Amino acid sequence: MKYFAHISLCFTLVTVFSLLACGSKNSATSQAEQTTTTPTEQKVSVTFNVDSAFAFVQKQCDFGPRTPESAAHKKCGDYIVEQFKHYKLQVTEQHAQVNTWDGKTLPCRNIIASYKPEAEKRVLLCAHWDCRPWCDADADEANHKKPVMGANDGASGVAVMLEVARLLKDLQPQYGIDFICFDMEDYGAPYWGEEGAPQDGSDWCLGSQYWAQNPHVAGYRAEYGILLDMVGGKDARFCREYYSMQYASSIMTKVWSAAEAVGADKYFLYEDGSVAIDDHLPINQYLGVPTIDIIPCLAGPQGGFSATWHTVNDTPEHISREVLGAVGQTLIQVLGSEVF
Ligand code: AHN
Ligand code: ZN
């Protein structure tokens, strides 16, 4: 009953809007303009620079794998903070201690960079910046205890955010944006360490779990959130991740439409994707900010995210500038056409 009521309301609204649209067209535009008008959104004129984005990937990797407590982690964190400050954003750092699957208590550093921190209407962009200490998905067992370089799994999302932050001077949004770099996303129990590890996914996403329960601003709100995870792989295709559809299907539609508008539709597919235990989950569950995950799904029956995922091959030479650009230009399109 409710369902029908909903459909008929939608139908009524569509009818009303069509009538309004027809009315204005007939009175205000010429016949020629009517036939050339297409329903696609207007393209935002700011260009996402793929070489700049790639350089941000390379720079993070030059520090080495950014695993918890490593010197590379500390130095790269400092670099990310400085870079966002350079683009005139207000940076807040969260330092916490988190409990891990292997019984340790490890330091966790979330980095939050805010554009127009005073604005009430806000968009949240996020990615993780830590690296996984174990290449436990590598074909060679000898690599299972080596750290992941994380060019794609970590650095790519941060790189796209840094490039968007660099372009804010051209984009000039009237609303606020928070760029959050989460730490300790990738410390989930490795396959070889199953014993004693939780089976509910709670060993992943420790930084975002902390932030979602202790946001840097009391009562934090955003209109919606977009998580970027592995957005630079040569084999990337972005499908409709399960929790994103459950919690934020209208944001999926918004982003996938923007991808079409910028010609990135060959990467953004209307196919069901993976089920990702990822940083968007605590944001949806604890804060109720509808947040999607732009995360790839591999074609074929074996599934997974990317061929380099949690292997020693997750390095800058396996990053595609074109994929970084497809995601980056899509975000520019979303942000540049946003009206609240
Ligand atoms: C799982 O769904 C287990 N992991 C996805 C989260 C992730 C790990 N993203 C990057 N590394
Ligand atoms: Zn990972």
Helicity range of the residues?
A: 25-40%
SS strand fraction: 15-25%
Q: Write the CATH fold name.
A: Aminopeptidase
Q: Strands of the biggest beta sheet: in what spatial order?
A: 1-2-4-3-5-8
CATH class: Alpha Beta
Distinct compounds present: N-[2-(1H-imidazol-4-yl)ethyl]acetamide, zinc ion
Class derived from helix and strand content: alpha/beta
Describe this structure in words.
39% of the residues lie in helices and 15% in strands. The chain is α/β, with parallel strands linked by helices and 340 residues long. The chain has one domain (2-337): Zn peptidases (Aminopeptidase, 3-Layer(aba) Sandwich), CATH 3.40.630.10. A six-stranded mixed sheet has the order 1-2-4-3-5-8, sandwiched between helices. It has a two-stranded parallel ribbon with strand order 6-7. α8 links the parallel β6 (238-240) and β7. Residues 1-34 have low confidence and may be disordered. The structure holds N-[2-(1H-imidazol-4-yl)ethyl]acetamide and zinc ion (ZN). Zinc ion is lined by residues 132, 153, 186, 310.
